[in-house]
Amino acid sequence: MNLYDEVEYPSRSFSQTHPERAATIGTMLGMSPPVPATSRILEAGCGSGWNLIPMAAAMPDARLFGFDLAESPIESARRDTAALGLKNLRFEALDVLDFPSDTGEFDYIIAHGFYSWVPRHARLKLLEICRAHLSPQGLAFISFNANPYSTVRLMWRGMLLYHAQQMGVKSPQELIAQSETFLKTLRDQWEKRPTTRFHSKLLDLQIDSVRSGGGNWFFHDDLATFFEPFSVTDFDRELESYGLQFASEALFEGLMPQAVADRPMNWIQREQTWDNLNFRGFRSTLVCHRNRDLVRPPDLNVFEKLRFAAPLTRTKLNTFRNEWTGSEAQSEDRRILDILTRLAQTWPASVSFAELGAEASNLLDLTLANVIEPCVSANRLPHPKQTFTLSDKPAIFAPARMQAQRINVVTNRLHSSIQLEQEPLRKFVVGLDGMTPLSELVPLFGNEREMFEQLDWLYRAALI
Questions:
Q1: DSSP per-residue string spanning 299-322
Q2: Is residue 4's pLDDT more than 80?
Q3: What are the two backbone dihedrals, phi and then psi, of residue 328, each rounded to the nearest 5 degrees?
Q4: Which pLDDT score, from 0 to 100, does residue 180 have?
């Protein structure tokens, strides 16, 4: 039995893996990526499918294929796909080494939580799949544990596995429990000694990671059979052997050069130096064919091709806050405030560069600060709020409704995770099935006004 059959790896959506993000960053780097909505998408190590399922529901004209070595998660993914009636998505229980050579091209390939957690021959097979099956202007998303910080995680891993061996641990669940206990004991002991007090602060990072991710995440990410970190330099060198190249981190703030040294650097040297200065421990990278000439840093003229969106709330006369990232923009410039006001009013739909009437430099600054997000799709959602009409029997985004029946974190149409913190709200989401009149759901909140406030929140959360 595969360890992923024995210990479930919680499956959810990851916004940074979405083809929309890859296509936008690829465009900013001078590429011409395929339109995400009609693209072919492959995910290696897809687990129970909850990164691909919301994509398939939101992009019915795309074709998606996910595979995983573990059979139990794939069976679960198939059941959920069938229950949602998705015809553009298929799942297979498949070893990456047996990936069929006649599968054709994919415009976007996703391998999240794969590269550092498989043996070398499987890792290199993934790169072979990217070389052979990634379309000429396509992009692959590959995440991995990064050095320098992952060297510290290797130290914790060695200590925890040694402790488990001494304790005679026989099952993954015992390993998880013993490891959590030992980490806390180790921190308590280190805090008492002047020579180790500093190290206990690093240990706090690991304990927080365990607490936030949960035991099953911790087991697969840190304690399972394989855990191999890489520097971005080593990663790009491995890519080169397969005719691939590091394009960018799948984050907008990494697209512009940072002042990291007094001497000239190529892009990989710059990235490695920045990793060292920031003690980076994880990377979410975009990869393309090595024969693609990339524009680095992006030419500001490319902003004229993009659209922009942001869930903004005005908190002060001259301040806007992004409800999802928590980032703020403060300005006395009337033009910038007008841009932010327009985006706030239009969300969750996007606005074109021409419609904003903005300077590219302004939009770049706001993008790098995580205040707004560029996109290439003509419409992120079909209806701006000004033209949205609520029916008497509204339907929530179908994958989110299915998730709400099980957990309190759901995926919206923009592939972001939304927390349903209050129990009435989760029940409300389950009740929004397109057949139940709103009048029957009022008792969940006590009055109609509160119910409509929640509907407004669900709209802004891109769920309805």
A1: PGGGGGG-EEE--EEEEETTEEEE
A2: no
A3: -120, 150
A4: 84
Q: Which amino acid is at 169?
A: V
Q: Do 291 and 285 form a contact (C-beta atoms < 8 A)?
A: no
Measured distance CA(334)–CA(404) in Å, rounded: 42
3-state secondary structure of 462: coil
Exposure string (b/e) for 29-68, b if CB count within 10 Å is 16 or more? bebebbbbbebbbbbbbbbbbbbbbbbbbbbeebbbbbbb
Q: Tell which wins on pLDDT, 319 or 176.
A: 319
The predicted model scores a pTM of: 0.92
Predicted confidence at residue 260, as pLDDT, reads: 54
Q: Determine contact, residues 56/89, Cβ cutoff 8 Å.
A: yes
Q: Which residues contact 189 (CB under 8 A, 6 or more apart)?
A: 196
Backbone torsions φ then ψ of 96, nearest 5 degrees: -55, -30
CA nearest to 304, candidates 349, 374, 249, 360: 360
Place of tokens 């003509």: 378
CA distance 324 to 12: 17
pLDDT tens, position by position, 313-342: 999 999 999 999 899 999 999 999 999 999
In 239-311, which ranges are E strands? 244-249, 282-289, 307-309
3-state class (DSSP) for residue 139: strand
Tokens at residue 207, please?
């304990």
Closest CA to 291 of 239, 227, 226: 239
230 vs 267: CA distance, rounded Å: 17
Bridge pairing between strands 134-145 and 106-111? parallel
Which run of H or E residues covers position 137?
Answer: strand 134-145
What is residue 423's predicted lDDT score, i.e. its pLDDT?
A: 84
CA atoms within 13 A on the CB side of 401: 16
DSSP symbols for 359-396: -HHHHHHHHHTTSSEEE-SS-SSS--GGG----SS-B-
- Does residue 10 have a cis bond before it (omega within 30 degrees)? no
E strands, 168-309, where?
A: 244-249, 282-289, 307-309
| CB distance 158 to 179 below 8 Å | no
Collapsed DSSP state (helix, strand, coil) of residue 146: strand
pLDDT interval class at 388 (50, 70, 90): low
